[in-house]
Amino acid sequence: MEAPEALAPGVFVVWGDCGITAGPCNVTSTKVRQGGGIVMRNRYLMLAFIAAMAVAPAGAIAQTVKVGLINTYTGPLAGPGEQMERGIKLYTKLHEKDLPPGVTIELIRRDDTGPNPEVAKRLAQELIARDKVQLLTGIVYTPNALSIAPLVTEAKVPLIIMNAATSVITTKSPYIARVSFTLWQSSYPLGAWAAKNGIKSIYTLVSDYGPGIDAETAVTKSFTEGGGAVAGSVRMPLTTPDFVPFVQRAKDAKPDAVFCFVPAAKEATAFMKAFGDLGLRAAGIKLIGPGDITTDEELNGMGDVALGTITMGHYSAAGDRPANTAFVAAYKAEYGAREEPSFVAADSYDGMAAIYHVVIGQNGKIDPDKTMDLLKGWKYDSPRGPIMIDPETRDIVQNEYVRKVEIVNGEKYNVEFTTIEAVKDPLHGVKK
Ligand code: PHB
């Protein structure tokens, strides 16, 4: 249903869309606009209007900010998507009360079903053109972020990335900011750490797409600069039913350590299983990588083979910080005492904090350029430690932690033992 146009300022109108049902019209969404008269299409709308007036404080103008959330809800690579949804819901539940009177955020959810750039592009197009969203967010997978970038530039709809982690993404549009991480941010310092800490050779195994290639390039650069040798490098298909042939090749090369990147969640667990089944630990080969390979929500299901894995990552459920203690307690209260939030849950929680920041900062009236200005330099006391959006690159600046998988109180955790503070994506300052 089209919105009534041309209303004078000061008064607002409520109207609704009817669902396709056999029976009376159901108002499936209500919308509010400032104007000079009141238009009531039917008695359901009248009731909605009266209800809205009853809750809106005197003088408040109702304002709904529409946010298109593109996430991976289904398909074999939906694991991080569930964590994203949980982080978003938790932040909303805890902070909805912080919105200015009359301001609401409407999340319009869409399922990209995995790393499917064509699907993601179509969803973004529909959200922008048909649903008229003012912001876009979510995005687990890099190919989807890259396919959407030209659209957000053209339409001037800011996109706040909650996961997709290939460095180049934020350079593709001035309307993209990232609250998650990049693989350069973790893998570059990890290579330097490994070279300094007794590892003389590595074998790299990465998923053959953006973040995997970034991880491989970054670790190779810093590890070899630190005097280490790369015994071999293999890029594996993004969805790999069986990691055994790749892990076997790594084992045969007899490196001190295997460096691995695969997408967080089920892929990481499958990789870990192959690492265990082929007996690399027994052969004295260590496992290192970015935090994606020991993602917290999967760790206890990975088996003891995960113990001793050294990763560089920006978030651990075991992180000993007041903001994290509160976050983990709220997460467990919401989702269950044995559930652990992963970095995707934490990053998406922070992504909602960024969205609230721009919505509150504009009292619900979203201007794209003002939104980007509010994001540039935004600082937040995150569960992962202090974070900031770099005003120049619109990318996240955050601590990276060296962690080891250990048992604490009977459960496996990424136990942080060294902190590298305020890491920017090194690619922005490093020549390849
Ligand atoms: C990505 O596609 O950018 C991506 C997905 C999952 C990860 C990291 C990066 O764990």
Percentage of residues assigned to helices: 25-40%
Give helix and strand order, one letter per element, not per position.
EEHEHEHEHEEHEHEHEHEHEHHHEEEE
Bound molecules: P-hydroxybenzoic acid
Instruction: Characterize the overall form.
Output: globular
Question: What does the average pLDDT come to?
Answer: 89
Instruction: Round the Cα radius of gyration to an integer and report it.
Output: 23 Å
From the N-terminal CA to the C-terminal CA, the straight-line distance is 53 Å
Find the count of extended strands (DSSP E, 2+ residues). Answer: 16
What structural category characterises the helix and strand content?
A: alpha/beta
What count of helical segments does DSSP give?
12
For the sheet with most strands, the description reads:
9 strands, mixed
Poorly predicted regions are 1-41
- Beta content comes to 25-35%
Give a written overview of the molecule.
By secondary structure, the chain is an alpha/beta fold. It is about 35% helix and about 25% strand. It has helices spanning about 45-55, 80-95, 115-130, 140-155, 185-195, 210-225, 245-250, 265-275, 295-300, 320-335, 345-360, 370-375; strands at about 10-20, 25-35, 65-70, 105-110, 135-140, 160, 175-180, 200-205, 230-235, 255-260, 285-290, 310-315, 380, 385-390, 395-410, 410-425. The strands form 3 sheets. Strands 8, 9, 10, 11, 12, 13, 14, 15 and 16 form a 9-stranded mixed sheet that branches. Strands 4-3-5-6-7 form a 5-stranded parallel sheet, with helices on both faces. Strands 1-2 form a two-stranded antiparallel ribbon. The longest helix has 19 residues, at about 345-360. The structure holds P-hydroxybenzoic acid. P-hydroxybenzoic acid binds near residues 80, 142 and 211.
